[in-house]
Amino acid sequence: MAEETGRGREVVLETDRLRLRPWRVDEAAIQREMWTQRDPRVPPHRRIDTDGHPTLAEFEDAIRANQPTSVGLLAVERKIVGDAIGYCGLVDSGHGAHEPELAFEFLRRVWGNGYATEASWAVLDWAITSGYERLWASVWDWNTASRRVLAKVGFIETDREEAPYGTNLVTTRTL
Ligand SMILES: CC(C)(COP(=O)(O)OP(=O)(O)OC[C@H]1O[C@@H](n2cnc3c(N)ncnc32)[C@H](O)[C@@H]1OP(=O)(O)O)[C@@H](O)C(=O)NCCC(=O)NCCS
Q: N-acetyltransferase domain: from which residue to which, for each copy (predicted)?
């Protein structure tokens, strides 16, 4: 269920266990922790570098810069615990404004509980009510868990691309 709050385009989505809403500045450490946990096969520019960048302050600045109008990547909070455990949402796919890309990432300690699947369903519902026609998702061929989540919510592989850091599977879902 999507709810427009009083802060312009700020969106809050609810599922049985989860609340998807904008990131808060004091949650920057959660974002950085996810970066530190990334698989070594993830391209270097998406991991913490040897100098420690992005730093906590840089994550904080990015959250500040995105508020209050950024509705693309929502923090996922467990309703019972009240803690942010990852993100799920829509980003630019490069295929036009009506066909964004689904993206998600969660802290390792919560993997395997169905959270990515549950959050993705909420974002799909939101995408439908927002009038989007199709979603894209690209995933490394080695990323079994992500491929499984995408399959569970109805994405179909349409292409594969050889990229500098491996084979990227291109998947789509018609809404
Ligand atoms: C991908 C990711 C978001 C999944 O989060 P999650 O909350 O654990 O996902 P879910 O519990 O909803 O579903 C995971 C599914 O993958 C399966 N899975 C997980 N690891 C697996 C593995 N190594 N081999 C086979 N299946 C695997 C699980 O069994 C589950 O499927 P099932 O419900 O049929 O049993 C999480 O692993 C993550 O944050 N990864 C790093 C970031 C990332 O890869 N993001 C996506 C980029 S495209």
A: 18-175
Q: Is the CB of 171 under 6 A from ligand 1?
A: no
Sequence ranges of the domains in the chain: 2-174
| Å from CA of 43 to ligand 1 middle | 19
In angstroms, the CA 168 to CA 172 distance is 13
pLDDT classification of 149: cutoffs 50, 70, 90: very high
Question: Is the pTM of the predicted complex or chain greater than 0.70?
Answer: yes
Phi and psi at 165, nearest 5°, equal -105, 15
Query: Which residue, 168, 148, 41, is CA-closest to 93?
Result: 168
Give me the CATH code for the 2-174 domain, please: 3.40.630.30
